[in-house]
């Protein structure tokens, strides 16, 4: 699953890549590492001509419970195979699609009892376009409407099968040429395939930084020598 992400591109760069206005965005702060369980605000692409900020962790518009963050922690991801079965997602499939720009994401490889973190990033271009869904929920505490999103996951390609070898999942990463087609909503989401391994790179990173209180630093993405596997990079 995809629970840790990064977004280090400038607003200007995202605006050019996705042909969207960035006028509503605050000045960017590079995100080198963010856990979905901290429910960060993210720059999100929809059919709108403007890039919007949304919170990671989808709370459906109909939610009236007492534990919205607990609910959001369970909707950071959405499996593409079961979108039509889940009450939180099925109403959104046709009209509330979004793309989550990413500079790279983090996943763990299991080697016996040891978990080795990897940073997975695009070879070219510099952005992953992760397929997602979004909704708008009224927060009774703040008396404001809150836009929020989930990242869709699919079966892993060969690279991600090797890294995420416990669950063999990955974000549904769209080729940039398919972004507008996806957002248009006329094609079933299940018909979209994630980019191939050849368009992705990966290397092990420092677990100590990831589990520290100060993980959002450039060094969290830096490669380290993986003595367990005797290698520094896959593919």
Low-confidence segments, ≥5 residues, pLDDT <50? none
Quaternary: single chain
Strands, total number: 13
Q: Mean of residue pLDDT?
A: 94
Order of helices and strands: EHEEEHEEEEEEHEEHEH
**Backbone shape:** globular
- Structure class: mainly beta
What would CATH call the homologous superfamily? SOS response associated peptidase-like
Distance between the termini: 20 Å
Main sheet overview: 8 strands, mixed
The number of helical segments is 5
Measured by DSSP, the beta-strand proportion falls in 25-35%
Gyration radius, to the nearest Å? 17 Å
CATH topology: hypothetical protein yedk fold
CATH hierarchy, class: Alpha Beta
Q: Give me the CATH architecture, please.
A: Alpha-Beta Complex
Q: Share of helix among residues?
A: 10-25%
Provide the number of structural domains. 1
Description:
The chain has helices at residues 11-18, 68-73, 158-163, 179-184, 207-210; strands spanning 4-7, 31-35, 41-44, 52-56, 77-79, 97-102, 104-111, 114-122, 128-139, 144-155, 169-171, 173-174, 200-204. The strands form 2 sheets. Strands 3, 4, 5, 6, 9, 10, 11 and 12 form an 8-stranded mixed sheet that branches. With 235 residues, it is mainly beta. The two termini are 20 Å apart. Strand 7 (104-111) and strand 8 form a beta hairpin. It is 13% helix and 33% strand. The protein has a single domain, classed as SOS response associated peptidase-like (hypothetical protein yedk fold).
């Amino acid at each position: 699953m995809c629970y840790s992400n990064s977004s280090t591109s400038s607003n200007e760069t995202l605006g050019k890549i996705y042909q969207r206005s960035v006028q509503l965005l605050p000045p960017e702060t590079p995100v080198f590492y963010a856990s979905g369980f901290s429910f960060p605000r993210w720059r999100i692409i929809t059919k709108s001509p403007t890039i919007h900020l949304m919170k990671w962790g989808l709370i459906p518009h109909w939610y009236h419970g007492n534990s919205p963050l607990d609910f959001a922690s369970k909707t950071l991801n959405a499996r593409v195979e079961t979108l039509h079965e889940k009450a939180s997602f099925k109403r959104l499939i046709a009209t509330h699609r979004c793309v989550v720009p990413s500079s790279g994401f983090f996943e763990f490889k299991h080697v016996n009892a040891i978990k080795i973190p990897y940073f997975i990033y695009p070879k070219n271009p510099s952005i992953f376009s992760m397929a997602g869904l979004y909704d708008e929920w009224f927060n009774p505490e703040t008396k404001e409407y809150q836009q929020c999103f989930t990242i869709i996951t699919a079966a892993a390609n060969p690279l991600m099968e090797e890294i995420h070898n416990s669950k063999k999942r990955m974000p549904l990463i769209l080729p940039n040429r398919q972004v507008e087609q996806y957002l248009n909503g006329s094609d079933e989401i299940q018909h979209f395939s994630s980019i191939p391994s050849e368009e992705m790179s990966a290397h092990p990173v420092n677990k100590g930084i990831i589990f520290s209180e100060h993980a959002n630093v450039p060094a969290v993405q830096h490669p380290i020598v993986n003595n367990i596997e005797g290698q520094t990079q896959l593919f």
